Amino acid sequence: MDLDLSVAIKSLTLKNPLIAASGCFGYGVEYREAVNLADLGAVAVKGLFLNEREGHPPPRIIETPAGMLNAIGLQGIGVHRFVQERLPELREAGATVIVNVCGSTIDEYAEVSRVLSDAEGVGALELNISCPNIKEGGIQFGCSLGGTFDVVSAIRKVTELPIIPKLTPNVTSVASFARAAEDAGADAVSLVNTFLAMAIDVESRRPELSNVMGGLSGPAIRPIAVRMVYECRQQVKIPIIGMGGIASARDALEFIIAGANAVQVGTANFTDPFIWSKLLEGIRDYMTRHQIARIADLVGSLQLAVPEHA
Amino acid sequence: MLRDVEARVISNTRLSPDYNVIALAAPEIAEATQPGQFVMVKSARSADPLLRRPFSVFEVLRSNNRVEGLTLLSKRIGVTTKILYDAVAGDRIACLGPLGRPFEIVDPPVEAWMVAGGVGLAPFVTLAEALRPRGVRLTLFYGGRSSTDLFCLDVFEALGVRIVLATEDGSRGELGRITVPLDRELQQAAGSVQLYACGPEPMLAAVARLAAKARRRCEVSVERTMGCGMGGCYSCVVQVHGSDGKAHYVRSCTGGPVFDAGALVWE
Prior knowledge:
The complex is a heterodimer.
Chain A: E1 7-9, E2 12-14, E3 18-20, E4 42-48, E5 61-64, E6 67-70, H1 78-92, E7 97-101, H2 106-118, E8 124-128, H3 139-142, H4 145-158, E9 163-166, H5 174-183, E10 189-191, E11 195-198, E12 200-201, E13 206-207, E14 213-217, H6 222-235, E15 240-243, H7 249-258, E16 262-265, H8 267-271, H9 275-289
Parallel strand pairs in A: 3-4, 3-16, 4-7, 7-8, 8-9, 10-15, 15-16
Antiparallel strand pairs in A: 1-2, 5-6, 6-14, 11-14, 12-13
Chain B: E1 3-14, E2 19-25, H1 27-32, E3 38-43, E4 53-56, E5 59-63, E6 66-75, H2 79-86, E7 92-99, E8 111-117, H3 124-131, E9 138-144, H4 153-158, E10 162-167, E11 174-175, H5 179-188, E12 193-198, H6 201-213, E13 217-221, E14 237-241, E15 247-251, E16 258-260
Parallel strand pairs in B: 8-9, 8-12, 9-10, 10-11, 12-13
Antiparallel strand pairs in B: 1-2, 1-7, 2-6, 3-4, 3-7, 5-6, 13-16, 14-15
């Protein structure tokens, strides 16, 4: 059976729906020994500000049941060094590159976006308005409908690249934020970023993370993330990139059936950097078994029971 | 080349109520491992714990000139080390590697002094095996709380390594910390010496200070909580002195685990 796994996000075509999640895959080049980067739908590289950032002191992670908390604090090399040092390597590897764009102010988001728009080999911009671990900017925009609208509108003015705001689950209704992003001109949305969470060492009565709070990821959050993707699917027409605890092809398919056009995998890549070919193979097997030639036909194909007449 | 192997447990030797040496059938990884490199392991049968844990490769197992696998020296502290302690022959352990920056290999007339504390003994068997055929004179400074904390001396004796011991209760070797005889010998040493250290953080800091004082080259292997071991997550950072005069966080999985002692910021 001839399978079409491609996903279109405005001008960008992914060869398959599997994307390495930002913050979980370095700048992509770290994983060249484990996976041919060109075989992935895309690589979402670690979040970039205008300048280099040190991030938080360790401890930066702690494992929790079926998941982990992180408070890395967006350590990064800044957009200029990325363009000079990492982007050529990613181009050479044939990777489709999505850059996660960070900012403390709308001007910073815009400037980072401008630099990336002028660079060769950037496929799309994922706007990080959802990192729970930094104080200024970021999640402040992602937690207010007006803020989300304003950031997306501002970036829309400075780039032709597809814009993908990454949404936080730490709000009452993610779907209304997806809608605000769509109204402001976003080409897709990705969700969910991590859940703000906390763990305490009861013996010392100290927080496990230096930053006190961190973001929860991993299989623990998957059912909530699936629900949020499903809710967003009812509210927006633009593509949705779903993520949250995906560790198998089955998990990826769950998000796609709920309404995701593509998926990102993060924490599971830590456990198994060779996961990608297994995920792709599992999705192909499923499509063959269910006689589904185009992955697009599976998106949002959830079968609800026919309601009984009262 | 990086590999992930569902390695069969060949054997598991319990050295004490805490320490064990587990042998894993991962010949491809063992063959490619350079001294100081590490592997990331987890149970191959359970998703709990979710994340792998890093271990230095302790020994490369050979039989009839063929590499059979590798061993890990482990101390039971958390869930994964308990799985490793309780494992029996035939169990499966997922083993990813080799990873990280190895030790620098030296040649005579430079002497190699290895300084180990507790489970920090782990990276020195493969280092001694690499240095010995080059004719490098080898010394192991090995410290523990008590004689029951000192293991596998026979492995180093068989490699022709001179061994200096210290225990904090004086039950074996010199009474006190291992840095006491190290300091004394550093002051007496006439020739060129390269130090290698692995163990608890205060010991590493003390060795780094002694090395700086004696103007000797020193590499340390650090241990940090790691998420991935591949450079993906930025969890395992240590502070290094930057060329701009400021301290910067560097990933210990890709920038290390072996660092030049002088490059690190010691608390």
